[in-house]
Amino acid sequence: MAELNKIGVVGAGAMxxxxxxxxxxxxxxxxxFDVNQDAVTSARDAVxxxxxxxxxxxxxxxxxxxxxxxxxxxxxxxxxxxxCDVVIEAIVEKLEIKQSLFAQLESICGPETVLxxxxxxxxxxDIFAKLDRKERALGLHFFNPAHIMKLVEVITAPPVSQIRCxxxxxxxxxxxxxxxxxKDSPGFIVNRCARPFYGExxxxxxxxxxxxxxxxxxxRQAGFRMGPxxxxxxxxxxxxxxxxxxxxxxxxxxxxxxxxxxxxQQVAQGHxxxxxxxxxxxxxxxxxxxxxxxxxxxxxxxxxxxxxxxxAVDDQxxxxxxxxxxxxLGLNFPKGPFAFLAEIGLDRVREILALLDANAPVNLxxxxxxxxxxxxxxxxx
Length: 381
Known about the structure:
By secondary structure, the chain is an alpha/beta fold. It folds into 2 domains: 6-184, NAD(P)-binding Rossmann-like Domain (Rossmann fold, 3-Layer(aba) Sandwich); 191-375, N-(1-d-carboxylethyl)-l-norvaline Dehydrogenase, domain 2 (Orthogonal Bundle), CATH 1.10.1040.50. The protein has 16 helices and 8 strands. Strands 3-2-1-4-5-6-7-8 form an 8-stranded mixed sheet, sandwiched between helices. Helix 8 crosses helix 13 and helix 10 (228-235) packs across helix 11.
């Protein structure tokens, strides 16, 4: 396996800073670069403060904290990343800016350097489209906070070297991450398979029979730590809307990715959740539900989660067991979609989808069509 000792990180925002911290903590020499040198200084100060708090709580020793800081270097110029084994980009989600950066890195770095993007929403294929040596370019999608969250989606797009991908997966697993290989496709695993958790909750809300509090209560009763509306309020309705619109566009506005009016209204009214003080569940509404209604809500959302995950299997994004693991690690789901499928039963999931399909309004026609994988007797691993 190739040596992966020296890591370059471009972008000193929260994500880049935490990626740099993770590698510095795991005995890698890290070069952190940002076009704004003040951002690099601020990032190192934030890392130093984070480590100081960890020392106070006796999570790490003072010697370990000092050694970590010693391995985190502030690069003043992109050329200082020339001899890195891997360079990870964590900059703004703008295709042209990322393409320009990687064009520079290709001319600076040696032929064996792996070039990686941490994009969460753009096509990895598009980001690297203008490179001469695409076989060394891939996606490494970390989850925030990157030094704590275990999951890393390793995004593969032809003609990337599978040996390089496998080396990175092995290395990341050895240093404490859970790395899963994923085919380049919109949303990868987590961002794609999570859409129905929010989208179907919004569909239920728009129908008017249940409140946001009741939907959340049903999903907490089903084992989720937070309901979909609590999560939207936590992250921000504007962030959720942007992700929803990105996915809708990527899938040619297929009704499975329909962007619901209630979400648009929340953003238009400035009711973004915690950061604005008002959101879907900021009031003290009654969340009482009968057991039948709780099951009705939960199974409906779970059936659409299963259908989306099955669609991802159809598209060869990842294997069912990897999708389950990614959803548990990336979103703290109590089970993955296919574990829920085994619990609910294939016939029951088909029955729920058929009922939803028969009663779908015009704007959602086709939303509940079962994926091909659900129409077979079993889903291949």
